[in-house]
Amino acid sequence: MDEAKQKNVVFRYKGQRYPFTLSKLVETPYSVTPRPMFGASILTGEADYSNMRPDEVVPLVIQNDWRRGFQDVDYDDSKKYAYSQNCDARFKNRVMLAPKKQTAITISTALATLSDGFEQGSSTTLYLWESTLGDFATATRSTTGKRTGTYCACLTTTSNGHDAKIHRTLASGATALASYIGTTVTMTAYLDYDAAGATGSVTKLYIADGVGTTYSDNFTGATYAQATVSREIAAGATELTIGIWLDTATDDTKTVYADDVTLATMIPAAPSLIIPFGSYLVAAVGAHLLYSSDGASFTQAIVFNDTITDLCVYGNNLWVMLGASAVPYYTSDLSAFTLSSQYGGDADRYTTLTAAIASSDTTPTVADRSVFSGDACYAVIDEDEDTEEIVQIDDVDEPDPAGITIDRAELGTTAYAHASGATIREIGAMSGAVYMANCGDRICAIADTTGTVRTSDDPTNNGTPLSTSITPPNSTYTITDMVDDPNGNTLMMKQDGPYIVVDDTASPSIPDTLSDVNTTDSYKGYVWKGYWYVPGGVNKLRRQNLSTDTVEDISITQFAQGDKDMDGKVTAIAGDGEYLYLAIDNGTYTEIIAGRDENVDGSTSWVWHPIWHVTPDDFVSMCVSAVSGSKKLYALTNTYTDGVQVFALSQSYSDPLIEASYEVTTSGTFVTPWYSTDFVENDKFWDSVWIGAINFQGYTSLRVSYQLEGQGEWDDTNDWTELGYCTASDMFSGTGATLVYPPEQVTRFSIGQTSRKIRFKFDLKAALDGSTTDEYSPVLTRIRVDGRVESSLAGVSLRKKNIACVLDLSGGPQSSVKGQLTALAALEAATEPIDFEGPDCIPRKVRFAQEGLETRLTRRPAEAKEAEFVAMLTLEEV
Predict the structure, then answer these.
(1) Which residues contact 275 (CB under 8 A, 6 or more apart)?
(2) Does 305 or 215 have the greater pLDDT score?
(3) Hey, which residues does 276 pair with through a beta bridge?
(4) 3-state secondary structure of 796
(5) pLDDT band of 44, cuts 50, 70, 90
(6) What Å distances lie between residue 242 and 103, 186, 876, CA to CA?
(7) Are the beta carbons of 54 and 65 closer than 8 angstroms?
(8) Which letter does DSSP use for residue 660 in this model?
């Protein structure tokens, strides 16, 4: 018989076959025994259970703190969770319902008062209304003839055919008019005609849409009465213009007073901004500026002729930006609005005063007038770096040897004295303003176009002229925001990322964002607690430390990879003293999440907590305000019919459970990570779960469900197995600040299932008896999962064997003892599993145990052709 066939132990490794013979010197040269799965103890992450055997039913998981936020899909951090909707896990040892999303505040579509330009103005000049006048006609702002308020409009004509018209274009362009097509628009105004009934005289209201014009009946009232005109906006409309028309059939004076003009529908425009201003909230909705003094309703302050592009609080004033082609307004009281007559900008022509100017001079002259052109210009007189005065220069081209006349009275009576040789530079009027930022009340920065920025420490009329243009690089990309910064930095957002202005030069602040160029979304930045938060791309959010310039990527997708709900653009940002709030638009819902640097057990890192999962989507602006008497988060979407969204906030973030009038949402969902213990690749027999909860009998509920690995998505209700409801207690009393919460109750739920992983879902509900008790929230306090680790994976046994064998190494025709010893040494050093078959004819994959090869000499060379050995092998099945 061939010697190789007589061998009863065979190894195969990397294509080589190594046969050996079991020893005849021992009684049991071959044995196979079970290998223990576990040692005497194991660390499970909970010190209390570090000495318990996991193959016995013991507490495998304990979790009672979730302050490190989401999204821990697998249980890698004992203080994280996986998902949450309308729940709040920011407080130690508790998960509760999110603060209440309150009823949205309606943006009224009732009458929109449009006579703002009668009350707003300068002397007799009307604001907002334009005039079309014959040679013998006037249109002025007047206190005479007013019906309400302080001013009205006064139209006068003295000659037939020389009519007087005032008109406002409230919307223009096919896109802006699209929502009006087929809608009937009604205009009303109170008129007082001082020569009523004059033959052939015309006093009418009208509405024009670019396709046609509809006029009211001729007004004939001798005292104030209301006139009305309506028009259905035609297909193809290109404008919405309203007006008042006065003409006379005779060459005598006719006057009509107009007041309290209304439009019987609000202009259906997109909201864009909501910010605090003093004791008010102010909101921009198209051309409408709305305000609220109580956080419960909004009132129209004024309607402009142009869409509001930005709002900014600087000093005591609210500034209203109206775009690159419209001059901004400012107000200190939301009642009187001042049209900016500020000047400034590029200084390209200079001259020098050759004579001193005393402070008492009212019409000083400039000897050298050769550098100016035109009949008049505005200029800054610079005596030194700290003294500037803005003046008007008249009759620039007048060939008068005496020089150019400076009219100080045009812009105020305050005058500086100037020594001879002071410089005068010509400047132009502000032509428009798109965005504005308050740079720490030190200066303001105004983007007068989408490509240039100017600064001033006092932009009010008669204040400090605007600086020369600061033009950021990469002009292909436009400015999308000027960012308020209480630290005093001049910050701007562009389509290609954030920029900062230093020494009148703008440069990219975070160069990495150049890879996130976005020409579709006009992102706005936000400064909070010394960091600049910069959204970009399609789902990015970075923050830059404004002191150290260090940058950190805190994009939600970094924390929630693969979570479709969180994969969206950041559309709005706001913060209070404790948390930064983001609105994330995923195309279907808005996820509002809270974040901050959180210190847990001595380790500080940025964390995110989902708070609200709401409709509608398309949030565009948010702010925090206590205008209602308590702190709340207010938000606007891009659809005015959504109203102003309102979310309650914790007043102190200390203990919202006992805050007075703290209310919660009526339902929410909280999902744990996949629990798998330290033995990730083993099945576990999940025996039971113990849930600690605070629950109000008859008012709140906490339902518990579980899901085993492979059973489906977390948000599919059909993939969960319900365990039941946590025990509730009726041991509580009081409300608000006097509320005494019931004691914690622990409920045990049996599971009795085997799987590699398990996770739990908690459905929290409040106000079970109706909406009157939404200040009570169920509270999840702790989770303990009992079970044991199984010697299987997906039902397949993981049990392995230990193999011991003793081999005779005596040499033979086909192998020497030396060759056998060399082969065994090579097999012991193998880095990959070895194929093995013993006398039981069961093929296995094995490796040598540590110190698994021992050899002993049995016959010396003098007693045989060569020395003989026995080899004792300890093998482990793999």
Answers:
(1) 281, 282, 311, 313, 621, 623
(2) 215
(3) 281
(4) strand
(5) very low
(6) 35, 10, 92
(7) no
(8) T
pLDDT tens track for 423-480: 676 777 788 899 999 999 889 999 998 999 999 888 988 777 788 889 999 988 999 9
- In a 13 Å sphere around the CA of 541, the CA atoms on its Cβ side amount to 29
Per-residue burial over 753-781, b = 16 or more CB atoms within 10 Å of its CB, e = otherwise: ebbbbbbbbbbbbbbbeeeebbbbbbbbb
The span from the CA of 222 to the CA of 169, in Å, is 28
Selection from 339-353, 417-431, 617-631 with the highest mean pLDDT = 617-631
Which residue bears the tokens 């923050």? 543
Residues 6+ apart with CB under 8 A from 56: 788
Amino acid at 403: G
Asked whether the beta carbons of 575 and 528 are under 8 A apart, the reply is yes
Q: Are 355 and 367 in contact (CB under 8 A)?
A: yes
Taking the C-alpha atoms of residue 507 and residue 501, their distance in angstroms, rounded to an integer, is: 7
Q: Give the type of residue at 69.
A: G
For 769-816, write each residue's pLDDT tens digit. 776 667 789 999 999 999 988 877 666 666 788 999 999 998 776 678
Which of 362-393 are b and which e, b meaning 16 or more Cβ less than 10 Å from the residue's Cβ? eebbbeebeebeeeebbbbbbbeeeeebbbbb
Which amino acid makes up residue 685? F
For residue 6, whether the previous peptide bond is cis, meaning omega lies within 30 degrees of 0, is no
Contacts of 630 (CB under 8 A, 6+ apart): 648, 651, 661
Distance of CA 576 to the CA centre of its chain: 14
**What percent of the chain is predicted at pLDDT more than 90?**
50
Query: Of 42, 57, 63, 46, which is closest to residue 784 (Cα–Cα)?
Result: 63
Q: What share of the chain is helix, strand, coil (3-state, %, to 5)?
A: 5, 45, 45
pTM: 0.80
Residue 224 forms beta bridges with which residues?
Answer: none
Strand partners, 391: 379
DSSP line for 439-505: ETTTEEEEESSSS-BEEES--STTSPPBPPPB--S-TTSPEEEEE--TT--EEEEETTEEEEEETTE
Q: How far apart are CA 117 and CA 126, in angstroms?
A: 6
**Cβ neighbours, 10 Å, residue 131:** 16
Strands (E) located in 586-666: 590-600, 603-614, 619-625, 632-637, 644-648
Q: How many helices (H) and strands (E) does the chain have?
A: 5, 67
Strand partners, 317: 314
β-pairing, 569-575 vs 580-585, is: antiparallel
